[in-house]
Design a protein that fits this description.
single chain; about 100 residues; mainly beta; 8-stranded antiparallel sheet; 8 strands; about 15% helix
Amino acid sequence: MGTQWSLSENVKGKNPTLKIEEGRVSGNAGCNSYFGTFAGDMVTGNFSVKEIGSTKMMCENMNTETNFLNALNEANSYTVKGNTLELYKGKLLLLKFNR
């Protein structure tokens, strides 16, 4: 994948991002930088992020960051349509990103 994705929703503060590279994810969660391990399958659409860690700065809107990281951790499938990446838990859309 190797593409930098930005959360499509407007949030207060820094817009969360997601970069997926071989076996790793990283980005900004809205305040802090984060990183973790990634497993995915382009054929089945399986998606899994584990062992998420992050820097520990305090920012004005920590709820956005907490919700973003929780959703990233819960996602178990994905689709890519053109310049859009969608992460799902079952059939529930959790996060939507733009390239």
